[in-house]
Amino acid sequence: xxxxxxxxxxxxxxxxxxxxxxxxxxxxxxxxxxxxxxxxxxxxxxxxxxxxxxxxxxxxxxxxxxxxxxxxxxxxxxxxxxxxxxxxxxxxxxxxxxxxxxxxxxxxxxxxxxxxxxxxxxxxxxxxxxxxxxxxxxxxxxxxxxxxxxxxxxxxxxxxxxxxxxxxxxxxxxxxxxxxxxxxxxxxxxxxxxxxxxxxxxxxxxxxxxxxxxxxxxxxxxxxxxxxxxxxxxxxxxxxxxxxxxxxxxxxxxxxxxxxx
Amino acid sequence: xxxxxxxxxxxxxxxxxxxxxxxxxxxxxxxxxxxxxxxxxxxxxxxxxxxxxxxxxxxxxxxxxxxxxxxxxxxxxxxxxxxxxxxxxxxxxxxxxxxxxxxxxxxxxxxxxxxxxxxxxxxxxxxxxxxxxxxxxxxxxxxxxxxxxxxxxxxxxxxxxxxxxxxxxxxxxxxxxxxxxxxxxxxxxxxxxxxxxxxxxxxxxxxxxxxxxxxxxxxxxxxxxxxxxxxxxxxxxxxxxxxxxxxxxxxxxxxxxxxxxxxxxxxxxxxxxxxxxxxxxxxxxxxxxxxxxxxxxxxxxxxxxxxxxx
Lengths: 261, 310
What we know:
The structure holds 2 protein chains of 2 kinds.
Chain A: E1 2-3, H1 9-12, E2 18-24, E3 26-27, E4 30-31, E5 36-40, E6 45-49, H2 56-63, E7 71-76, E8 82-85, H3 99-105, H4 119-131, H5 147-161, E9 165-169, H6 177-191, E10 198-203, H7 206-212, E11 215-220, E12 224-228, H8 231-236, H9 238-250, H10 254-258
Parallel strand pairs in A: 1-7, 6-10, 6-11, 8-9, 9-10
Antiparallel strand pairs in A: 2-5, 2-7, 3-4, 11-12
Helix pairs in contact in A: 3-5, 4-5, 5-6
Chain B: H1 6-11, H2 13-39, H3 43-67, H4 69-78, H5 91-107, H6 117-138, H7 143-151, H8 159-188, H9 190-195, H10 200-222, H11 224-230, H12 233-241, H13 245-270, H14 274-304
Helix pairs in contact in B: 2-8, 2-10, 2-12, 2-13, 3-4, 3-5, 3-6, 3-10, 3-11, 5-10, 8-10, 10-11, 11-14, 12-13, 12-14, 13-14
């Protein structure tokens, strides 16, 4: 059950933005993973890592209330502004959506459903596009952009949202190194918003994630989960190393590109 | 007898005025909402809902005759304009209920039955089509009315249908203009919209109910064929012509309205079936849009290509 007002306003300043307690995710009552308990605080960069099919996206969608938990619960601090950055290929190319209109979507919410975009929203969208280095793309169609351009525009929408928590689903997937660097720089900009937005990044690139994240959650198939609560712990924690070793054993080429160093 | 001329058309305009206005409004309404229908890949839903509406109308005739045969026969004796139908057996009411039931099928998620949504819509389409033909066979007196509804050959529209279609156009197009940005967001990126707190279920519900209502009311007035055509073809033509989403909605409404009005006029002039002519005109708009797009693409490619070296 996802609750949106689980604890008092005084706790929000110092307490976690999202608390998952013994959360089990899955479909149709079947759990994909063992129970997971995490507190996600302001300004933290979390990496949710693991191979394809491990349940990474399902886990974050359940955190966001998009999927129903199999067991356990999620508590969100009151009045949170959330943003979701989908995988670039997940958006339907049949929709004729301009870059400007797409970034303006980041300004929509429960209090902004009806009518035209306000001047303040248009200004915020333009500023976000400029911050993402995509101002010159404003009139282009989202579907006509290259992978790197599209990812910058997706990030611009999250910037325009001015969110407390931003969830990125495989933001560096299928990008070249230069585009990947741009995206990682934009993630740092996102974290600087609203006094430190929390960022959850779903990725299968273990190396990059461990290099940058404050916390990492490694999910593997066969119902294995490991949580590293600091950068040092990621490399040293026996539990993390144990799950990671199992992961590498099944994916022998993973260490060359993705292993902890 | 000579074929009717445009002069005949204008001199008899008063007779056809309600039907022409209804056709134009239905085209505007369905063309506008049809943009969502096409973008959300609900094209078959529109067809199935229209077919269900036709079944609803057929059932209203048949059950009305079964329940009260004397009154039904008396109504026929008095002629079509004096035909008094109890509110309970109003065809438009049955069409609306049948359409909304078909809409519920579209909203339902049949994963638990190991079926896709499309397969359920196929079921609705086939069951409604077969039902309408079977019921139509039982009601000889309204066989012509039913044929008009199924194939869109209605020449005269009742004033009550004009009023209902006008009301629906004002309310539904107005509602869609107010919510179009949120509707586009929830259709394009439903997860992103839900995460940002948009009431996506309410928005989807509004869209589906507005499709069901507009299809039901317009099917009663025009027939299933042009209703399906107006909810698909104008939106396709607009999407082919422009990538500006606001303009897509405007053009789709315009093409729909022109198809409704122009189709009626051409049908009169050429002594053609109305619904099929309206559908053909909407098809022509799409064909013209495709041709214009093809020419524009070629011209743009020629401008981009470097001049030949000497």
